[in-house]
Amino acid sequence: MKRCAILISGGGSNMVALAESMTGDHPARPCLVLSNVPGAGGLAKAEAMGIPTAVADHRDYKGDREGFEAKLIETIDAHNPDLIAMAGFMRILTPLFINHYAGRMLNIHPSLLPKYKGLNTHQRAIDAGDSQAGCSVHEVTSELDGGPILGQARVPILPGDDADTLAARVLPMEHRLYPVVLRAFASGDKTRIDLDG
């Protein structure tokens, strides 16, 4: 059984979707939910699910990203994870961290990569006149939002959409896509998965 650490910064809705999926014949189980934000809503949700939690506050390491990442690694490694799932973890990581978990780390991003890396993805898709938006699960590499894409889910952009209405339609697709990709990844299967909403 693979051990999966989940990294969050906020409410943890994708974390909950992942944790709820890791039951039965799933090849992985959650071993830790870690947040860089003390009091993040996802921590209480993880505790209610019986998952160990930890906090590594990035604000304690102002100007010292390597010190912050060393603390992250120390905290995560104490739980002996085989896999790392970033689920709304809002910190850009350096090669120090990425290389430590190379080949074992996934992230979900709210765009159809390679379009719209970084932030404000839904508004950027609307502003570009795209007909579709969605989310991508990819392996984490040193290139921001640039690792191999393992899955995507698409939704139409509707007339009158704004960033909030589009985000509200993409989020349920994130909750569908990420657990399916994690299950395959934990089984050693990197076949790309595509879903339509």
Search tags:
Rossmann fold, 6 helices, 24% strand, globular
Task: Tell me about this structure.
By secondary structure, this protein is an alpha/beta fold. The protein has two domains: 1-102, Rossmann fold; 107-197, Rossmann fold, CATH 3.40.50. It is built from six helices and eight strands, in the order βαβαβαβαβαββαβ. It has helices spanning 13-21, 41-48, 65-77, 95-100, 121-127, 163-186; strands at residues 2-8, 28-35, 53-55, 83-86, 105-109, 132-139, 149-156, 193-196. It has an eight-stranded mixed β-sheet. α4 links the parallel β4 (83-86) and β5 (105-109). The protein is globular. The chain starts with a strand and ends with a strand.
Query: Quick check: average pLDDT?
Result: 97
Distance between the termini: 31 Å
CATH architecture descriptor name of the largest domain: 3-Layer(aba) Sandwich
What sequence of helices (H) and strands (E) makes up the elements?
EHEHEHEHEHEEHE
Number of extended strands: 8
- Per CATH, the class of the largest domain reads Alpha Beta
Main sheet properties: 8 strands, mixed
Number of helices: 6
Question: Which structural class is indicated by helix and strand composition?
Answer: alpha/beta
